[in-house]
From TrEMBL:
Belongs to the glyoxalase I family. Residues 1-110, 116-240 form the VOC domain. This is lactoylglutathione lyase. It is an enzyme of class 4 (lyase). Residues 314-351 are annotated as: Disordered. Residues 244-484 form the Bin3-type SAM domain. Transmembrane segments: none annotated.
C-alpha cells in the first residue's frame, strides 16, 4: 500500500550547515546552545493521506535563481501557486509551490547558503505570547516583525542567527483568529540543546507543556525531551554537542586571566566560547571579512542576551523554591540557616560582562601596519594558515609567523591548527592569486614546525591533537601549541 510523507522539522548547532538527523531539520543558540533544523520527512506504513490542517503554513527553501527553479518544477509536473516576483514592498524574489501531498513551499532567492531549507511558518493565536515563549524558553531572538493590515496578518521571524544564514521560525498571526486545526500531517520542529533538563524547566516556567520528560532514549545515550508551545505546536529537544570540539583540547592556564588574540576568528563563536569557558582577561578576534565581523558581534549580543535570560531563569526558579519552601517550618528553618540566595550572589559577584572581555575587529593581519595596543599571552590561528598561504604565499605566511612571535609576551603560547596540503589542492582555484601562489609554495604544512622553532624562535612545541580523537569530521586536524 502506498505511504505518504509527514514532515518533521528538527534542530541542532554548530556554525554552518543543515544537519541530517534522526529527528529532522534544525534552527541554531547559546548558553544552552541550541539550533533549529528543518529536514526530516517521515512515512508511516499503510497511511496514504494526511490532514495538513489550517495551522501549518509552509517551508522556506533558499535558491539562487527562483525563476529557473520554478521552470524546472513545472517541467517535472510540479504545481506553482505563485509565480516568481518580488515581495510586495521589497526586493526579495519569491515563488510558492505545492508538492504532491499538498505541502506548500516558499522559494526565496538568495546567494549560496549553508542552510537552504531555511524556514517553517506556523500560525499562532497570540503573537506576543508566542514571541515571549520562544524568546524565554528557547532563547530565540526576535529578528523582525511585519504587519500587513491590507491582508490582516502580522508575522514575526524568530531564530538564532541572521535570516540569510540561519534557519528561522516564521510565526503568523491572522487578525481575530485564535485557534487552528492542526491536522495530523505536521509533526514537530527540533531545537538541539546541550542540557535537556534545563530546557524542560525553562519550557515549564514560560508556559509550555512537557509531553516527554527529559532523559535518555531507550538503548542509546542520546537524551531528549519534548514539549508543546502555548498553541500546541510540538518541539523536541535532543542533546547535541554544543561546544566546538577544539575548545576541549585547550588548557585553562593558557587563557584564564590572560590577554588573548584570535586571528581569523570567522563568525566569532569559538572566540566567545573560549572567553566564557576559560574566563579570559580579554580576547580580540580579527578577520579580514567585514561580514563575518558583523556576524561575530551579532553572536556576541546573542550570547549576552541568552546568558541574561539564563540568570533571570535561575533567579525565578530560586525564588519559586524559596516560596514553596516557606510553606513548611522545616524548609523555612533550613533556608534561613543556609541562606537561599548565597549560591546566586556568590556566582554573580565575580562575573564580568562578555562585552568587556570579547571584542572583534576587521583587519588584514598579514598586511596591516596598525600597531596593537598590547602584547598577548596567547594567540590562536585555527584553520587560517592555508588561506594566508594561498593569498600571500610563503612570504605572507612567514610574515604572519614573525608578527605573532613579536606580539607574544615571553612564555606566551601560539596555538596553530594548520590545514593539510590536500586542502590546499582542493581550494587552489578559488582565485587566480591562489592558483599562482599554490604553484610557487615551497613551505608545506609539514615544514611549519621546523620554521617556527628554528627560524622564528619558538623554544618548544606540544602536539595537543590527541584530545580530538572521535570528534566530528572536519575537526580532526592536528593542533599544536608553540611556546615562546
Amino acid at each position: 500500500m502506498a505511504s505518504t510523507i509527514r514532515p518533521s522539522l528538527s534542530s541542532f548547532r554548530f556554525s554552518g550547515g543543515v544537519s541530517s538527523t534522526p529527528y529532522g531539520v534544525s534552527l541554531s543558540p547559546f548558553n544552552l546552545t541550541r539550533r533549529l533544523i528543518f529536514s526530516h520527512l517521515g512515512s508511516n506504513y499503510g497511511v496514504d493521506k494526511y490532514d495538513i490542517g489550517t495551522g501549518f503554513g509552509h517551508f522556506g527553501i533558499a535558491v539562487e535563481d527562483v525563476a529557473k527553479t520554478v521552470e524546472l518544477i513545472k517541467a517535472k509536473g510540479g504545481k506553482v501557486t505563485r509565480e516568481p516576483g518580488a515581495v510586495k514592498g521589497g526586493k526579495t524574489v519569491i515563488a510558492f509551490i505545492e508538492d504532491p501531498d499538498g505541502y506548500k513551499f516558499e522559494l526565496l532567492e538568495r546567494g549560496p547558503t549553508p542552510e537552504p531549507l531555511c524556514q517553517v511558518m506556523l500560525r499562532v493565536g497570540d503573537l506576543d505570547r508566542s514571541i515571549n515563549f520562544y524568546e524565554k524558553a528557547f532563547g530565540m531572538e526576535l529578528l523582525r516583525t511585519r504587519d500587513n493590515p491590507e491582508y490582516k496578518y502580522t508575522i514575526a521571524m524568530m531564530g538564532y542567527g541572521p535570516e540569510d544564514k540561519s534557519a528561522v521560525l516564521e510565526l503568523t498571526y491572522n487578525y481575530g483568529v485564535t485557534d487552528y486545526d492542526k491536522g495530523n500531517g505536521y509533526a514537530q520542529i527540533a531545537i538541539g540543546t546541550d542540557d535537556v533538563y534545563k530546557t524542560a524547566e525553562a519550557v515549564k516556567l514560560f508556559g509550555g507543556k512537557i509531553t516527554r520528560e527529559p532523559g535518555p532514549l531507550p538503548g542509546i545515550n542520546t537524551k531528549i525531551t519534548a514539549c508543546l508551545d502555548p498553541d500546541g505546536w510540538k518541539t523536541i529537544g535532543p542533546n547535541h554537542e554544543a561546544e566546538d570540539p577544539r575548545v576541549k583540547v585547550l588548557k585553562k592556564e593558557w587563557f584564564e586571566g590572560k590577554d588573548c588574540l584570535d586571528i581569523g576568528c570567522n563568525s566569532g563563536v569559538i572566540t566567545i566560547q573560549i572567553a566564557k569557558k576559560f574566563n579570559c582577561k580579554s580576547i580580540l578576534g580579527l578577520d579580514i571579512d567585514s561580514g563575518l565581523i558583523e556576524d561575530a558581534f551579532w553572536y556576541l549580543r546573542k550570547f549576552k542576551k541568552t546568558e541574561s535570560a539564563g540568570k533571570k531563569q535561575a533567579k525565578d526558579t530560586s525564588v519559586k523554591a524559596v516560596q514553596e519552601g516557606n510553606s513548611s517550618e522545616q524548609s523555612t528553618t533550613a533556608l534561613s540557616n543556609e541562606g537561599p540566595n548565597e549560591s546566586l550572589s556568590h556566582h554573580s559577584s565575580g562575573e564580568r560582562d562578555l562585552s568587556d572581555i570579547v571584542t572583534f575587529r576587521r583587519e588584514n593581519f598579514v598586511q596591516s601596519h596598525r600597531p596593537h595596543e598590547k602584547c598577548y599571552d596567547t594567540i590562536l590561528c585555527l584553520s587560517v594558515s592555508k588561506w594566508i598561504h594561498l593569498n600571500w604565499g610563503d612570504d605572507g605566511l612567514i610574515t604572519s609567523f614573525s608578527k605573532i612571535w613579536k606580539l607574544l609576551h615571553p612564555g606566551g603560547i601560539f596555538i596553530l591548527e594548520p590545514q593539510p596540503w590536500e586542502s590546499y589542492e582542493k581550494n587552489r582555484k578559488v582565485s587566480e592569486t591562489a592558483s599562482n601562489n599554490y604553484r610557487s609554495i615551497m613551505f608545506r604544512p609539514e615544514h611549519f614546525q621546523d620554521i617556527l622553532l628554528d627560524k622564528i624562535g619558538f623554544r618548544k612545541v606540544e602536539d595537543i591533537t590527541s584530545g580530538l580523537s572521535g570528534t566530528r569530521a572536519g575537526f580532526d586536524r592536528p593542533i599544536f601549541a608553540f611556546y615562546k
